[in-house]
Amino acid sequence: MTQLLVFKERVRTIYQKYGSYIEPFMKFILAFVVFKLINSNLPYDERLGSLMILFGLSAVSAFMPTVMMVFLAGIYTVASVYAVSPFLSIIVLIVLLILYVIFIRVSPKFGYVVLGVPVLYLLNLHYIVPILMGLVATPLAIVPVTCGVIVHYLIMNIQTAALATNSTANVDDILVLYKQVMDGLVSNKAMLLTLVIFAIVLVITYLIRCLAVDHAFELSIICGGASTILFYLIVDFVLGSTAQILKMIVGTILSCIIVYIIQFFRLTLEYSRVEHVQFEDDHYYYYVKAVPKVKVTMPEKSEKRFTKNHSEEELFEEAEEDSFEEKSEKLRLHTPEEEVSFENKEAGNTDFDEEQ
Known about the structure:
The chain is mostly helical. It has two domains: 266 residues, no CATH class; 38 residues, no CATH class. It has 14 helices and two strands; from the N terminus they run H-H-H-H-H-H-H-H-H-H-H-E-E-H-H-H. A two-stranded antiparallel ribbon has the order 1-2. Helix 3 packs across helix 5 and helix 4 packs antiparallel against helix 7. The longest helix has 40 residues. The chain starts with a helix and ends with a helix. The C terminus is likely disordered.
């Protein structure tokens, strides 16, 4: 455990020192993955899939707030759909604008959640989102989580609608296309049940995290993961779709492990030194439970200097043929902190022999 804490402190030190470079790099990676994902699912315009466009948009997003990254991702999606159907792109634009306005008014700082949910769906790790948001945010985080899930299912509906669309300007065809896209969102039971489960899991995780009990954060992760598995099992058995149960359980367990790792690097508490403090002011009497954060002292590096003379014995062996005065001078140089006085051995001084 100590080695993990030391590793954590080293990572934090590196981040504090080079954070101004790490954050843009990570945002660049996230933006590139998001734009590449959109282009892979909506490959209707080859020009938008060029590396120059992808790198350019990612570079701009790296130095912009996450709100602007969400905006650019929406514009990129509309542009991709426009290549196959201008009328379908208008429908997508309206839906994305509604989501963007709701998101930006409630929780604009969680733009990475909206972008991350579709990516995590591909990895079967979307169960991370409600548990992690319950740890680091408030129940208002339901809004960006909901927007992210809707965006994921919107992209899936666009793929289906794009196959049946055509370039004619017939009003009836436009209405049918609009109805098809909206029904794919509003009547999608999988999406609606996912939104309900994510909201409940986020609230449960948040409430347990706020309890004044030891290991509340770890307990909230376990309860969030268990709630996710339980609710999905109920839904799968009710709907009769049991084929994805094993995949869901494995994904939830992996998600809980990843959330625990994030929580370890974010905040580690030492419950063995809990203190209870009581104090008052003019209006209230306070009962405070103080849990200290785990702090470790970074090991200092020690430097050792090695000289050519390793020991007094080797010194005298190398200088066996030297005179007595030369031996004395070498010993004095070998031990600079000690002052050793030598007198003429021929004069009969025996103190030197006793000290040796």
